[in-house]
Predict the 3D structure of the following.
Amino acid sequence: MALSADSMRCGEFRTTYKADTTIFPTPMSRNFAIAGLIILLIVPQVFDAYFTNLLIQIGYYGIAALGLNILVGFTGQISLGHAAFFGFGAFASAWISNNFGIPVILAIPLAGLMTTAVGMVVGIPAARIKGLYLAIATLAAQFILEDFFNRADWFSGGSAGSLAPPLTLFGFSFDTDKSYFYIVLAFVLVMYLAGTNMLRSRDGRAFVAVRDHYLSAEIMGINLTKYRILAFGVSSFYAGVGGALFGHYLGFVSAEGITILLSIQFLAMIIIGGLGSVMGTLMGTAFMVLLPEVMDGTMKVVGGYLPGLERGVSYLKEMAIGLAIVLFLIFEPDGLAHRWKQIKAYWKLYPFSY
Amino acid sequence: MNGQLLLQLVINGVIIGVLYGVVAMSFVLIYKSTQVVNFAQGEFLLIGAWVCWALLVKFGLPFWLGFLITLAFMFVFGVLLQVVVLRPMIGEPIISVIMLTIGLSIFFQAGLSWIFGEYVQPFPRVFDIEMVTIAGLNVQTAYLMSFVISLLIMVGFFAFFKYSRMGLAMRATAFDQQVAASLGISVHRVFALAWAISAVVSAVAGVTIGMINGVSSALSFIGIKVFPAAILGGLDSIIGAIIGGLIIGVLENVAQFVDGEWLHWGNLYNIAPFYVLVIILMIRPYGLFGTKDIERI
C-alpha cells in the first residue's frame, strides 16, 4: 500500500498558527473522516434496526455530551444538572410543535434556544461561585427542574408526560429508525462542526483561558462573568437540541427518565471520553451506550450458568456505570481520547518508537 | 391556621434536623480534613443500616453485638475506601474527586439494591415504641431516642476533638497539612481515620433512622439533603453543620405545613431545601459559619 509522505507525519512540522488549529491535520485524516461518513450513510441500509437504534442513541446523547464537555472540559465548570437541560429541550420541542403548529425541524433548534435561556439563568450563580459550590448549585437546579417537569401540566403534561410528534419534512415522515438516523446524523455533523469551529475561535480560546487560570484570563481582558454564563448557554443549547432529538425519536417524553442518574451518565461520558476533547466526547458516549448492551450480550452467554446474575442484570448495569467512572478516574483520567492519541503516536514512529 | 399542627411539625423538624446535623457533621469532617466532597455520604448510612439489619435478622444476633460489629465493619470499610480508592486521587482536580465519589455512590446504591432488594425492610423491635406526651405534644419514644443518640454523638465528637491526642492531630492536619506533617503527624493516617469516623457516625445515623422508618434505598437521599445543611452552615464548620441540619429539618416541616395549608404543590417538602440552597449560594456561598475563601495570586 503506497502511503503518501503526508499520510502521517513523524513529528511536528507546523509553522503557522493556522496549521496548528486546522480541523484535519493531514489529508489522510480528512479522507478517513469522509470515508467514515460514507460508511455511516450506508449503515442503516445494511444493518438491522437494533444497530441503527444504538447509533441514533449515540447521536443524540453525543450532542448533549458535547455541550457538557464545552462547559466542563473546556471552561472548567462543573454541572450536575445536564439531564435537566436535556429533558427541558425534549419537553420544549414537544410543547412548541404541539401548541404552535411549528414544524418539528424548526421546533428542535427553537427548543435549543429556550433551553439556552434556562441554562443561562441557572448559570447566573456561576458568575460568583465555582468548583464544588457550583456543582452543588447545579445539583439543586436538577432537582428544581425535575420538580417543575412533574408539576407544570401546561408545559410538560405533568407526571403523565407529553407526546412528541414525529419529524416531517416535505410530506415525508421520519418515523422509522432507518430514516430518523439521517436526521440525527445531520444534526450530529452540524453540531460537532459548529462546536469544533467555535472552540477554534476567540470565544473558544477564552473558554480555555478561563479554565486554565481564571485570574490570568481576567487580567488579559476576558470578561469572566460573560464567558462563564455563555458557557452555560452554549452547553444548554447542545443539551436542548440533543433532548429534542431524543423526544421526537421516542415520540413520548416523561419526567421519569430525566433523573440525576442521567446527569451523572453525561458526566461519565465526557470523563471516559476525555475532558476537553471533541472527538473523545463521541468515543465516551459510544462507550456508555454500548456498555449496557455488551453486558446484556455477556449475560446471555454467562447467564445460563449463573441464573442469579441474570436476575440482577439491571443492577449490574448500574454498578458497571459507577465502576467505569471510578476505574477510569484512577487509571486513565485523560480518557479514551488520550489512549487513542497514544496509539497513534506509537504507530507514528513504528518500528522505532523509542 | 393550625397552631398545634405547626408546633408538632416544628418538633418533628428539630428531631429529624438533629439527625441531618449528625450526617452533615460527618460530611464536613471529611471535607475539612481531606478536602474531598463526599457524594457517597448517603450510601454510608445505607451500608451501615443494611449491614446491621442483616446481622440482626439473617444471623439473629442480639442488638448490642450486631451493632458493635456494624460499627467495626464501617470503621474498616472507611479506612479501606480511603486507602484503596481515594488515596490515588490526592492532587487531582476537584471535578475528578467529585465524580469519583459519585461513581462510588452509584456503585454502592445499585449493589445494595441488588443484594437486599428494593423494598422497605423493618428493623426488629429493639426498644418499645410508644407515645409520650411532653407539654401537650405527642412524641414517639423512638424519635426521642434518636434525638438522644444524636446529642450523644455530638458530645462524643466534641470531646474527641477537644481532648484526645488523635483529635488534636486531626485538627492540626485540617489547619495546615504541611505543618502537621512536619510536626510528625502521619497525614495519611489522619485521612484514613477521618473517613473511618465519618463512616461509623453515618452508620449510627443510618441504623437510627432504619429503626424508625425501616431500611430502604430511600435512606441514601439523606446524603443529598446534607448539601443544603452543610452549605448553609458553612462547609468547613462542624458547628455550622449541626445548626444547618437543624434549620433544614425545621424548614422542611414548615414547608410541608405551608404546602398543606395554602400552596398544595405536593412535594415542596423535598424541594424547599434546594431553593434555600440556591439562595444561600447566591448571597453567602461560604455559609453562616464557614471561612470565606481568600485567593492569593
Q: What stands out?
A: The interface with chain B takes residues 72, 78, 124-125, 128-129, 131-133, 135-137, 139-141, 143-144, 147, 150-151, 215, 261, 264, 267-268, 271, 275, 312, 315-319, 321-326, 329-330, 333 of chain A (CB under 8 Å). The first helix of chain A runs from residue 17 to 20.
